[in-house]
Amino acid sequence: MPVGMGGSMTVVIATRVRKRKNPDRSSDTQQAVMKQGITADDRMGTNITNQKSKENNKMARFNNLAMSKDLAKDNRISTTKSFFGLCSKTKYDATGSLISGSKREYTAEAGGKIERALKASADKQASLLAAIGKLPTTTLGNYLLEECHSADSEFAALQLFQYSHMSYQPVSSVCVFEGNDARTVVGSL
Question: Quick count: other Cβ atoms within 10 Å of Cβ 86?
Answer without folding.
Answer: 7
